[in-house]
Amino acid sequence: MPYVTQTLRDEIDEEIIHLVRRLKVLAQDKQRAGVLNYTITQILTTFYQLPHKQSYAVYNELVGVLESCKLEFYSTFVSAYEELKSQENGPIVGLNL
């Protein structure tokens, strides 16, 4: 996310590292998805002061943030992985029936 300055990223990253280390201890392998979902939900609702500051604008912004996160993650990680696998295994081609 190039629009977040490196100085701000460095400060945020320090906090994230501490949080993730603690969550890994708490989560155990079988609960990772649930712990991550709960943590993200709590961060969003606390950051946006929900349910006290409810409005369509807030919910719309929040959903936009989540969608942007998904797209950023996909373009940064999943797309590169899919390209690697396509090179290893060949591209998907349609079948002629």
Please explain how this structure is put together:
By secondary structure, the protein is an all-alpha fold. The protein has two domains: 1-47; 51-90. The protein is built from three helices and no strands. The chain has helices at residues 6-27, 32-47, 56-89. α1 packs across α2. The longest helix is centred in the last third of the chain and has 34 residues, at 56-89. The radius of gyration is 18 Å and the shape is extended. The termini are far apart.
What can be said about this structure in brief?
Helix content is 74%, strand content 0%. With 97 residues, it is mostly helical. The radius of gyration is 18 Å and the shape is extended.
Fold topology:
Blueprint: H1 6-27, H2 32-47, H3 56-89
Helix pairs in contact: 1-2
Radius of gyration from the alpha-carbon trace, in angstroms: 18 Å
Derived from helix and strand composition plus strand pairing, the structural class reads mainly alpha
**Biggest sheet character:** none
Mean pLDDT: 94
Order of helices and strands: HHH
Shape verdict: extended
**Beta-strand content:** under 5%
How far apart, in Å, are the first and last alpha carbons? Answer: 44 Å
Summed up, the helix count is: 3
Number of domains: 2
The unreliable regions are: none
> Level of helix content?
over 70%
Please tally the β strands and state the result.
Answer: 0
List keywords for this structure.
about 75% helix, 2 domains, 3 helices, mainly alpha, about 100 residues, single chain
